[in-house]
Write a structure and sequence with these properties.
Layout (H helix, E strand, L loop, with lengths): L3 E2 L7 E4 L8 E3 L4 E3 L9 E3 L8 E4 L2 E6 L8 E2 L4 E2 L24 E6 L5 E2 L3 E6 L5 H11 L10 E3 L10 H15 L4 E8 L7 H8 L7 E5 L6 H16 L5 E4 L4 E6 L10 H14 L3 E4 L9 H5 L5 H20 L10 H5 L5 H8 L8 E5 L9 E5 L5 H10 L4 E6 L11 E5 L2 H6 L6 E2 L9 H16 L5 H4 L15
Parallel strand pairs: 12-13, 12-14, 14-15, 17-18, 17-21, 18-20, 19-20, 21-22, 22-23
Antiparallel strand pairs: 1-2, 2-5, 3-4, 5-8, 6-7, 7-9, 10-11, 10-16
Helix pairs in contact: 1-4, 2-3, 2-10, 5-12
Length: 493
């Protein structure tokens, strides 16, 4: 295993796979450079002199400009490179040539629902309409789990702080996301728990839910009940009886919808985990399945790669709006557009937003973009889709679930225990993290810089996702973790 990697032949940097000590020879055949200082693992080293103002190139693209003269062998990071991005841009559609591939179908063991959807879990969800009944919802789930039987996995409450004292888009987002979760096929049954005086009360929410099966979705207004917990547990028993009639059966992976997200990135994210997820996406899409890529701010700087892979000009224009609308959201709140998202990213070797974005967008693989979704919009088109949502881990993962994702693939170089409303597969970028936090990490792509090829690792990831879809619990599920978060933008009354 080499201690360094030049990702693209046009790059003027290498990435340290292991820490490079001063004097370490980096021999690339056409270039030989000695490290002039310690280069931490995951960080970048210049392999040629870069004058102040000149581009720093990684992945074959500019990730920023030098803030000062940089000598070959120097460490490149936030102290000597800065973003080269501007504000709103004009874009031109320059579609790439792409030959769509079809590969042999595979099946997983899932749940067929009467409305034609499929689920990978058979859970009972308790959805509060408002934060005032969060503790009640949690108590209901705790008591109702004593009555779980047959194919039913468990009863889960999804507390959140919203549903009242909201205005405009915030209130719409809450109603839309709650309705999306109520209609999610991973839930064999749903109890919608209201307080009774909230803005997003049950009668209002029913307009967003649309048609529903009264055997699968039940409602309770706490202010109208003498004992809301006892009454709700009885309703949960009915939901459990109904959901227990479903059994796992073979289903084509073309029915699978997989969300893709990253967080706590490091210098290996764009080398191991993200391109491996991209390869996974290509495999699933080739079998007729669907993937969803989100976290729009982490497309900034790499957006043209996605734009030019749009299947048509209408989708291109939607992607332009996707990017520019999010930039306008930042500026309308007097915030800088191109701040690197977190200190952890920087510590892991990410120097600019372009650096992160060019690694982040590799999760999209090489397939054409077939759909562009607004926040809360449910996916309808098979293939690769783009979804409007922020970079925040909990908000974005919840948005993926709300749009229909059965499972979320979450790549990380730093590690995190969080979950989402659906099984959330934690994919480590490096083996150190996988070994240290085996209670968090489900799949390790650090082997890609050790002894495994991309094709075999991506196939192993695909096989693992099929297992998860067939009932294998991920670490967060084993720990009993289930999270959700709704995007808030405006005023709270």
């Amino acid at each position: 295993m080499q201690d360094f990697l030049r990702i693209h032949e046009d790059d003027n940097v290498v990435v340290a796979i292991n820490t490079l000590e001063p004097g370490t020879l980096v021999d690339l055949g056409d270039v030989q450079v000695e490290a002039g200082e310690e280069i931490p693992a995951g960080h970048k080293m210049a392999i040629k002199d870069i004058a102040c103002g000149e581009p720093v190139t990684k992945y074959g693209f500019r990730i920023g400009n030098a803030k000062e003269d940089i000598k070959a062998g120097q460490w490149i990071h936030t102290h000597n490179v800065k973003t080269a991005l501007g504000d709103l841009l004009d874009y031109t559609y320059e579609p790439v040539e792409y030959e769509e591939k079809t590969t042999e179908d595979v099946t997983f063991m899932g749940f067929n629902r009467p409305d034609g959807k499929v689920g990978v879990r058979n859970e009972i969800w308790v959805i509060p309409t408002v934060g005032c009944v969060n503790n009640v919802a949690t108590a209901i789930a705790k008591q109702a789990n004593a009555f779980v039987k047959g194919s039913v996995d468990e009863v889960i409450a999804f507390p959140h702080p919203y549903g009242c004292s909201q205005m405009g888009d915030d209130q719409e987002h809450t109603r839309t996301i709650l309705a999306d979760l109520i209609n999610h096929p991973n839930a064999g049954g749903v109890l919608v728990l209201g307080l009774g005086c909230e803005n997003s009360n049950i009668d209002i929410l029913k307009e967003y839910i649309g048609e529903y099966d009264p055997n699968r979705v039940k409602f309770l207004v706490a202010q109208e009940s003498d004992d809301e917990i006892a009454d709700s547990v009885e309703l949960c028993k009915e939901l459990i009886d109904y959901a227990a009639t479903f059994e796992r059966e073979p289903i084509s992976v073309s029915k699978l919808i997989i969300g893709m997200k990253c967080g706590g990135s490091d210098g290996f994210s764009g080398i191991t985990a993200n391109p491996c997820v991209g390869k996974f996406s290509d495999i699933l899409v080739s079998k007729g399945g669907t993937t969803i890529l989100t976290e729009v701010p982490e497309m900034f700087g790499a957006e043209t790669i996605l734009m030019n892979r749009c299947a048509n000009e209408e989708l291109f224009n939607k992607t332009v709006d996707l990017i520019n609308d999010f930039k306008n959201y930042f500026t309308s709140h007097n915030q800088t557009i191109y701040e690197n998202p977190s200190p952890g990213n920087k510590k892991g070797g990410i120097s600019t937003l372009e650096d992160k974005s060019l690694g982040c967008t590799q999760k999209s693989g090489s397939a054409l973009v077939k759909g562009v979704l607004a926040y809360g919009e449910r996916v309808t088109t098979p293939g690769l889709n783009l979804l409007s949502a922020p970079g925040n881990d909990l908000v974005a993962a919840t948005a993926l679930a709300a749009s229909g994702a059965h499972i979320v693939l979450f790549t990380t170089g730093r590690g995190t225990p969080f979950a989402s409303p659906v099984p959330t597969v934690k994919i480590s970028t490096n083996s150190r993290l996988a070994n240290k936090k085996s209670n968090w990490i489900d799949f390790n792509t650090g082997v890609l810089v050790e002894d495994k090829s991309m094709n075999e690792t991506a196939q192993a990831l695909f096989d693992y996702v099929v297992e998860v879809a067939s009932g294998k619990k991920v670490c967060a599920e084993e720990s009993g973790f289930h999270d959700m978060a709704i995007f808030k933008q405006g005023v709270t009354l």
